[in-house]
Each structure stands twice: as structure tokens, then as C-alpha cells.
Amino acid sequence: MKVEYAELTDFDAWIRLAGEVEPLFGPMADEAPFQDALKQAMAQKTAFCIRSGPDGKECTLKGGIIISEELNEILWFAVSKPCRGKGYGRTLLDFAVSRLNRTKPILVQTFDASSPDGRAARKLYLDFGFLDYKDGGLNPAGIPTVIMWLAPPS
Description:
Layout: E1 4-5, H1 11-25, H2 32-43, E2 47-52, E3 60-68, E4 73-79, H3 88-99, E5 106-111, H4 119-127, E6 131-138, E7 144-150
Parallel strand pairs: 4-5
Antiparallel strand pairs: 1-2, 2-3, 3-4, 5-7, 6-7
């Protein structure tokens, strides 16, 4: 599994992945603000992915993650349904954390403990040492969220 910078040529594959996770995250694939933010993250080299597919062929996106170095946050993270439970998410999260400033807390908004559909994501963050920090409110899909943080190593 190789994590790579997302390229603009991956845009359509990212939009398909966004569409796949909309029931959990809320509308985004057809939303101009999401599309613009995705293009900006690709241009700024803060969007990373694991992809497969022969050279010159359409990308098959296994998963993607977007970070903000300025905010020291994970902004967006999804793994395609057929690829879940195979280590892609762990690899992407490890890569993203390595790109952020470990001398400061790293933040992420994810599903709270009451969301059955968010258990796998939540477990992954907990396995990495993230802890609940504060209530995150409802996401655009109406699912309760929590802000988690990863403390700097002692």
C-alpha cells in the first residue's frame, strides 16, 4: 500500500468516493464548496490517497485523507466500502499524522460513540491514541459527532 499525493487527475475518483460516503457525511459530491476545497487541497499537496489501476487508466481510489497543516487537523477521511478492514485506513491515518505537527495536539471530527455506522472510524482513531475532546454537534447527515484529539508524545 503506497500513499501518494492526490492529483487533479484523481478528482473524479475522489468525487465518486465522496458520493459513496454521503449517507454518513452529508451532501458533498455535487457541492461546489466541497469540490473547490478538494481541488485546493490537491494543489496544496494536503490531500493524500491510496489508488490502484494500470497507468493511463481511470484511477480506482481505495481511500483518501485531507489534512490542514495550519490547523493541525484531519479535515476529511474516507475509505471505499470494498476496501474497509484491509488496512488502507490505518495506512492513510498513519501517513497523515506523520505530516502534521506532533508537538501540538492533532484534531479530528468524527462520529461519536452513539453512532453504529461510525464504530470502525472511531475505533481506528482510538487505536491511534485519539481521545474525545468535546462535542462536535450533528454533521450535515444529521449524525452526532465528537472532536477528538491526539496529544503530543510525552
